[in-house]
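A reminder from the course coordinator: this example appears on the midterm review sheet, so study it carefully.

Given structure:
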C-alpha cells in the first residue's frame, strides 16, 4: 500500500466536505431583495396639470363645510344624527370644471379653472322642504356659493326624492323594534325566538308605486354572518313619508305567503291558530352554511406576482404614468372610479371614462324581492369603496391609494387602501408567431397590462371595478360581481322566481346592468361615428365564370344622427363601430377607436313600466350622443326614490341631433342575468360574472404600437437564444433571482366603522 494514500484520501474527503458545506450554506442564504422605487410621489412638472381633476382633499372638505355653516343662514345638523325634519349636508364632492375650460388650460396655455366643490344639502326644516345643490368656491378658501339645482334639473328637487341617510335607516330600525314589533310579542317570541338582538332588516327600493311615496318593505333576516341568505319569512312595510317620525306607521305585513294589515293583525291571527308557521332552524352566529370561513386549512402558498426591478409605473398624486400611457384618476362619491385625460404616446384618446350606474332588478313572490330595483349610485358606489386586502383583492405588491369622502357627516373620512394600481402579467402572449416555414424564428410579446381597481361593497354585492391599459393602445373597462346573493323566503310558487339554495332560502332571479360614460377624443375633440360590418355577396369566379362563389365583403356606414346611434339592448349592432377622427393614417384610413362590448344582459324592464324612464339608459347597449355640459351623467341619485318622475331621464338625451364631426360621448351598458344556484352559497364567485367593454385602436396607428415595447422577444434559428443580448428571457435566472420586498400585512377596514 502506498504510504501517501491515506493522506490523499483525507485531503480529498476534506475538500468534498468543504464543497458540500458551501453548497448547503449557499442554499440556506437569503436571496438579495429586489430593486424598488417610490410608488407615490409628489406632483412635479407637467403631471401637476392633472390636479384639475383631483378629488377634494380633506382640508378642502373641511373648508367647504365651514363656509356652508357660516353663510347659508340656517342651522345645519350633523347628518349622522339628523331627523327628516332637519337641515344637513348630505355630501361634498369635487365639481369638475367644464371641458372647454379644462382643455384651454391643458392644451391652450389658458388659466387654471377655479377649483370648486359640489355640495348636496337636505333642507327638511323649511316651509317647502327640498334638496339643493350648491357649487362652492374657490378652493381652498371659499368665498362664494351658487345654487345650481334649477340649472341642472329644471326645477327644485322635491324632498321625497332624497336618498335615505344612515340616520333614517337607524330611525326606521328603532321604529320596527320598539313600535311595530311591540304589537306582536307572542308571534315574535314563539316563531322567531325574538330577543331584541337576533334579527336584522334589509330595506328595498324604490319606496312605493308613485311620486311622493316613501313606503319601504323591510325583509327580516337572522342576525348572523351572511344574513342575506337567512330570511325568516317576515317582511314589514313602513310608511315613513312624514317628516315627523312619530307619525310613521306600518302599512302592510307579509309572513310565509300571507298578507296582513299590520303586526297586530298578524299577532291576532297567530294566537287564534290561523297562521301557517314555517319555523326556521336557528343558525349559529357565524352563519353556518353562509360563513365565509374556509372549510379547509391553509396549505401550499398560491402563486405571487412581484416586480424584480421595481414597479414600471409611477403614481403622482392623482396622475399615473405607465409606458406610453398617462391618465388622471378620481373617485366620485356617487358613481365611484373615474378617469380623465387618458393619453397614449402623448396624444389624448379619451377625455373621460367613468362608471355611471349599477342597476339590479329582482323577481320574487315575496313583496320585498319583487319590488326591488336597486340603483346603486343613489346609495353611493364611491362612498362604499371598501378597504382592499393585500394579496387577495389586489396583488400583494400593488400600490394602494387612500381616498377621502365627505358623506352624511360634517367631517371627511379616510378610506384606507380603497384603490389599487398594479401591472399584471396576464400569463399569455399579447401577440406571437412561431415560424417553421421558409424561415425559422420566434417573435412574441408578453401581455402585461396596467390595472386600476376599486371594489365597492353596496349592501350584499361586491363590485370589482377595473380599468386596464394594454401595450397595443387598447383600454378595457370591466366589472366583476361577487358578494352574497340576496334572497327571499321560499314558499308557494317560489321556484318560478329562482332556485332553492337552502332549506328556506330562495335565490331570486335578477338582472344586473352597468352603465359607463366614455368621452372619446380621437385625434381631437370632433369625431364622427362609423360602422363597419360584413355581408356575403354572390360572384362568379373570374378564372372560371361557370362557377359561383360566396365571398364576404366589407360594409361601411356613417351614422349621422343620435337616433341611428342608439342601439337597443337586444338589437343587432354593427360588429365594428368606432369613433373616427378627421385625420388619416399612413394608409389613407380615418384614424379611429373601436367600441367592443362584452355583455350577456337579461331583458330590460318593459318601456310601458311607470318607472322605466328613470333607468332608460339601460334600454341601450350603446348610445352615442353629442357631448353637452348639461348632460353630465346618464342618471341621478334622485331617481331611486322617485323613478316615476325621474330627475334625469336618459331617453331625453337622444333627440336625433346630428353627430357628424361633433364632440361625442358613448354611453355603454353591459350586464348579465343572474339566476342564483347552490354554488352561490355561501358566496357568488367572479368567474363568469364579468362584463364591460374594450376601446381598441382601429387604423389609429400605422402599425401595432406594441412593436415598440421593450418587452418584445425575437430570435432566429441562427442566433444564440440563450444569450441575454438576444433573448431577455434567458436572463431571468439572474435578473429575477431576488426576493420581493413585501411590506408587512396591514388592514384598516374595521377602524372608524
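Designed residues:
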Amino acid at each position: 500500500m502506498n504510504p501517501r494514500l491515506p493522506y490523499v484520501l483525507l485531503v480529498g474527503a476534506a475538500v468534498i466536505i468543504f464543497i458540500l458545506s458551501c453548497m448547503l450554506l449557499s442554499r440556506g442564504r437569503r436571496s438579495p431583495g429586489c430593486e424598488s422605487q417610490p410608488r407615490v410621489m409628489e406632483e412635479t412638472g407637467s403631471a401637476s396639470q392633472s390636479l384639475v381633476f383631483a378629488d377634494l382633499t380633506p382640508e378642502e372638505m373641511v373648508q367647504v363645510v365651514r363656509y356652508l355653516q357660516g353663510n347659508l343662514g340656517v342651522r345645519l345638523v350633523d347628518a349622522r344624527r339628523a331627523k327628516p325634519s332637519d337641515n344637513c349636508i348630505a355630501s361634498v364632492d369635487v365639481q369638475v370644471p367644464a371641458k372647454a375650460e379644462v382643455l384651454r388650460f391643458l392644451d391652450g396655455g389658458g388659466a387654471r379653472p377655479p377649483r370648486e366643490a359640489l355640495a348636496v344639502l337636505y333642507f327638511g326644516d323649511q316651509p317647502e322642504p327640498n334638496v339643493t345643490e350648491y357649487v362652492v368656491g374657490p378652493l381652498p378658501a371659499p368665498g362664494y356659493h351658487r345654487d345650481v339645482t334649477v340649472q341642472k334639473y329644471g326645477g327644485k328637487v322635491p324632498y321625497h326624492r332624497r336618498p335615505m341617510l344612515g340616520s333614517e335607516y337607524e330611525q326606521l330600525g328603532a321604529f320596527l323594534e320598539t313600535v311595530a314589533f311591540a304589537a306582536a310579542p307572542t308571534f315574535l317570541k314563539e316563531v322567531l325566538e325574538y330577543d331584541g338582538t337576533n334579527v336584522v332588516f334589509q330595506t328595498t327600493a324604490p319606496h312605493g308605486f308613485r311620486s311622493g311615496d316613501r313606503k319601504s318593505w323591510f325583509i327580516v333576516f337572522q342576525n348572523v354572518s351572511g344574513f342575506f341568505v337567512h330570511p325568516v319569512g317576515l317582511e314589514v312595510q313602513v310608511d315613513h313619508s312624514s317628516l315627523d317620525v312619530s307619525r310613521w306607521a306600518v302599512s302592510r305585513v307579509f309572513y310565509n305567503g300571507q298578507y296582513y294589515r299590520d303586526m297586530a293583525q298578524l299577532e291576532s291571527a297567530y294566537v287564534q291558530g290561523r297562521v301557517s308557521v314555517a319555523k326556521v332552524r336557528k343558525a349559529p352566529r357565524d352563519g353556518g352554511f353562509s360563513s365565509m370561513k374556509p372549510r379547509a386549512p391553509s396549505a401550499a402558498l398560491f402563486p405571487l406576482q412581484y416586480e424584480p426591478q421595481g414597479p414600471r409605473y409611477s403614481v403622482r398624486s392623482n396622475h399615473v404614468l405607465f409606458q406610453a400611457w398617462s391618465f388622471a384618476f378620481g373617485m366620485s362619491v356617487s358613481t365611484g372610479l373615474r378617469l380623465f385625460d387618458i393619453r397614449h404616446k402623448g396624444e389624448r384618446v379619451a377625455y373621460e371614462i367613468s362608471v355611471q350606474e349599477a342597476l339590479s332588478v329582482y323577481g320574487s313572490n315575496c313583496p320585498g324581492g319583487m319590488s326591488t330595483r336597486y340603483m346603486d349610485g343613489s346609495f353611493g358606489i364611491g362612498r362604499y369603496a371598501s378597504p382592499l386586502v393585500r394579496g387577495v383583492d389586489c396583488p400583494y405588491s400593488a400600490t394602494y391609494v387612500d381616498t377621502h369622502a365627505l358623506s352624511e357627516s360634517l367631517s371627511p373620512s379616510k378610506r384606507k387602501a380603497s384603490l389599487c394600481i398594479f401591472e399584471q402579467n396576464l400569463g399569455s402572449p399579447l401577440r406571437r408567431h412561431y415560424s417553421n416555414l421558409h424561415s425559422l424564428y420566434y417573435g412574441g410579446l408578453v401581455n402585461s397590462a396596467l390595472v386600476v381597481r376599486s371594489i365597492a361593497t353596496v349592501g350584499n354585492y361586491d363590485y370589482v371595478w377595473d380599468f386596464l391599459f394594454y401595450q397595443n393602445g387598447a383600454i378595457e373597462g370591466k366589472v366583476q360581481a361577487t358578494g352574497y346573493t340576496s334572497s327571499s323566503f321560499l314558499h308557494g310558487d317560489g321556484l318560478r322566481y329562482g332556485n332553492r339554495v337552502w332549506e328556506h332560502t330562495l335565490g331570486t332571479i335578477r338582472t344586473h346592468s352597468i352603465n359607463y360614460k366614455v368621452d372619446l377624443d380621437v385625434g381631437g375633440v370632433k369625431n364622427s361615428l362609423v360602422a363597419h360590418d360584413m355581408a356575403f355577396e354572390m360572384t362568379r369566379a373570374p378564372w372560371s365564370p361557370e362557377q359561383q362563389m360566396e365571398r364576404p365583403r366589407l360594409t361601411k356606414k356613417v351614422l349621422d344622427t343620435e337616433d341611428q346611434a342608439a342601439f337597443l339592448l337586444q338589437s343587432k349592432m354593427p360588429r365594428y363601430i368606432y369613433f373616427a377622427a378627421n385625420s388619416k393614417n399612413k394608409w389613407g384610413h380615418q384614424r379611429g377607436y373601436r367600441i367592443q362590448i362584452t355583455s350577456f344582459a337579461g331583458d330590460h324592464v318593459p318601456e310601458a313600466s311607470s318607472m322605466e324612464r328613470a333607468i332608460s339608459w339601460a334600454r341601450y347597449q350603446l348610445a352615442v350622443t353629442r357631448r353637452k355640459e348639461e348632460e353630465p351623467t346618464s342618471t341621478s341619485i334622485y331617481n331611486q326614490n322617485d323613478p316615476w318622475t325621474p330627475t334625469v331621464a336618459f331617453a331625453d338625451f337622444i333627440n336625433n341631433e346630428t353627430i357628424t364631426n361633433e364632440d361625442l360621448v358613448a354611453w355603454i351598458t353591459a350586464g348579465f342575468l343572474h339566476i342564483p344556484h347552490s354554488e352561490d352559497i355561501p358566496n357568488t364567485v367572479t368567474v363568469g360574472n364579468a362584463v364591460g367593454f374594450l376601446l381598441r385602436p382601429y387604423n389609429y396607428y400605422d402599425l401595432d404600437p406594441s412593436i415598440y415595447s421593450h418587452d418584445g422577444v425575437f430570435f432566429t434559428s441562427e442566433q444564440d437564444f440563450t444569450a441575454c443580448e438576444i433573448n431577455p428571457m434567458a436572463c431571468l435566472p439572474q435578473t429575477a433571482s431576488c426576493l420581493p420586498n413585501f411590506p408587512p400585512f396591514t388592514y384598516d377596514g374595521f377602524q372608524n366603522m
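Residues 15-30 have pLDDT under 50 and may be disordered. Residues 51-155 form a domain with the Nuclear Transport Factor 2; Chain: A, fold (CATH 3.10.450.40).
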